[in-house]
Amino acid sequence: MKSEIAAVVSFLKRLVKLKNKVEVEKMDLFAERLTVGLQEKFEGHWVPEKPSKGQAYRCIRVNAFHKYDPELLRACRESGVHYGDLGLPWEITLWVDPGEVCGR
C-alpha cells in the first residue's frame, strides 16, 4: 500500500507544481498529510489478493459532481494550502489499487 500511495502523492505533487501557486514547504506538508490520510482511509480496504475489491472507495475524484475530494480537502486544511491553489484539472480520477495506480 505504501508504494502505491507514494506514487499517487508524487503524481499529484508534480501536477500541483505545474501551476507554481503553492510554496515548497507547504507542498511538502500537503504531501505528508495526504499520505497519512490515504493510509488511514485505505486501512482495512486493501486486499492484495483481490485488487479491484474496494476500488471505488480508494478512488480520488474531482469532477462536476464532486468538486472537492475529501482527502485532498483534508490534506489542504492540515497543511494550510488553499484547495484552489492546487490547480487541479476540472476533472480527474485516480484509482489506487494494490499493485497499480492509474488515472483518467
TrEMBL record:
InterPro entries per record: Anti_prolifrtn (IPR002087), BTG (IPR033332), BTG-like_sf (IPR036054)
Mention any Pfam family matching this sequence.
Answer: BTG
According to the UniProt record, one GO cellular component term is: nucleus
Gene3D superfamilies noted in UniProt: Anti-proliferative protein, N-terminal domain (3.90.640.90)
Residue intervals of the Anti-proliferative protein domain: 1-104
The domain of life for this entry's organism is Eukaryota
Entry's family note: Belongs to the BTG family.
Its name, as the record gives it, is B-cell translocation gene 3
Taxonomic classification: Eukaryota, Metazoa, Chordata, Craniata, Vertebrata
